[in-house]
Amino acid sequence: MKTMVLHPNTASEGQKLKLTMLLFLVIALPTIAFAQTQSEAEDIRAFEARESHRPAYNPDAPSKFKASDHVYVKSALAIDFTYRKANVTLPLYRGLSASGESVYYVSTDASDFGFARAPGINYAPKLRNAVGSPGAQNARIKDRLITFTGHVDFSPVYKVVPGSPNPFPPKVAEPGALADAEWSSIVVLPSGIVINAQIVANKSGTHDRLKNIDIKHRTVTLSILDGVHGGRQYFYHLVTDASASLPAVLEKGVFAPRLAMLPTFGKSEPSDNSALLGFSPNVNGISKLDSGQEQGFVASLSNGGIDPINVFPLGPDNDNSSESNNYSPLWDAHISLWTPKAINERKEHRILSMDEQKQLIADGYLTSATGDADSPIDSFVGGLHPAGLIINCPVIAHPELPAR
User: Fold this and answer.
1) Are residues 120 and 59 in contact, defined by beta-carbon separation less than 8 angstroms?
2) Among 11, 31, 41, 207, which residue's Cα sits nearest to residue 110?
3) For the chain, which terminal residue's Cβ has fewer other Cβ atoms within 10 angstroms, N or C?
């Protein structure tokens, strides 16, 4: 009779080996990913320091700015808060185009807390939701240089002509920079970290907001825009690019169509699968210059392109690594319009906060400038319709200064 010999431990030993390997991967992969993230951050930072002949930013060093300046991008080299002439000087990074030519860019935000802290830029956790989206650009790192897939053409001539008799919409609106189909300033690195990186100079020219560039010392000075948040003016932000030509003209950014494919219009809560955050430009606010109340597209176009002073719901929270951090530099436009009721009652004024905007909507003084009754609404901004427009404008600072 054939005898069967059972080996009860054979299967269990194999299972133990598989479990051990699985446990190793569970423990090791986050460590490997963390190491890769840190390596990317340190490599980019070290290379910028070497090329600029300037010490690398030290996150533990005391800030060079006053506490009352509320500077978010800590690595900023200088900020000039002169009214209507405000600008920021940032470190300038060298990268490579797809064809291997040098391009120069700024980096202002990152989706990883540690990565953002190392070079002193904004922590923008919502950018993680851009991974895998057709709206992002995947990049490589070679010899410590980011190699971009897309291209920006700075050769077009910026032109805007106000409409008549109503300045908005403009009669002519031609952006001064055009991105190709591959370009997005929302860049996914090999580690999966997402950074906000805008080319500001290449062989075709320079960004329309560029005031000065020093290639040798790797610095660039760019104009920044005024806005309002939390009841205060001077919510200064840098417009880099926009998903459509009209906002690219009105905000003097690159027209980058790929941004329109980022998730998700009308979704602003931390729990939403969205890289975007709702904010509100206004169309028909007071346009009288130096009234202290001017705001909106009509005011901007009527007065030579002054800042429209958009309404923002929140700013960077760079010390908050929790899931409650809801900041993103990708602003989802929900455009407001003063109603006939507001105009008849002379209620128009400069809106200073999102809470104020919500109350004005509830009282019937503000409504959506776009959409109709069947369009989706976003309660995050008081129930306005998303306009389907993204403006990439990282927040730089919110200084405490007398209102103008």
Assistant:
1) yes
2) 41
3) N
104 residue type, one letter: Y
The tokens for 159 are 């032109």
The model scores a pTM over 0.70? yes
The DSSP element (H or E) to which 302 belongs, if any, is helix 297-302
pLDDT value at residue 373? 82
Digit-coded pLDDT (tens) for 337-355: 999 999 999 999 999 999 9
In whole angstroms, what is the distance from residue 296 CA to residue 309 CA?
Answer: 7
Residue 200 DSSP SS3: strand
Residue 35: per-residue pLDDT: 55
Average pLDDT, the chain: 92
Over its C-alpha atoms, the chain yields an Rg (Å, rounded) of 24
pLDDT of residue 270: 94
Cα–Cα dist 329/31, whole Å: 28
Mean pLDDT in residue range 28-51: 70
Domain positions in the chain: 39-397
* C-beta of residue 193 within 8 angstroms of C-beta of residue 245: no
Query: CB–CB of 334/381 below 8 Å?
Result: yes
Lowest-confidence segment of 170-174, 292-296, 303-307, 369-373 by average pLDDT: 369-373
For CA atoms 41, 77, 223, 309, give the dihedral sign. Answer: positive
Distance CA 172, CA 246 (A): 10
Q: What angle do CA 50, 396, 207 make, to 5 degrees?
A: 70
* Measured distance CA(318)–CA(323) in Å, rounded: 12
CA nearest 350: which of 363, 340, 338, 339?
A: 338
Residue 57 and residue 73 in contact, taking contact as beta carbons nearer than 8 Å: no
Residues paired with 377 in a beta bridge: none
In sequence order, the β-bridge partners of residue 277 are 331
User: What's the pLDDT at 36?
Assistant: 59
Q: Please, what's the largest Cα pairwise distance for the chain?
A: 106
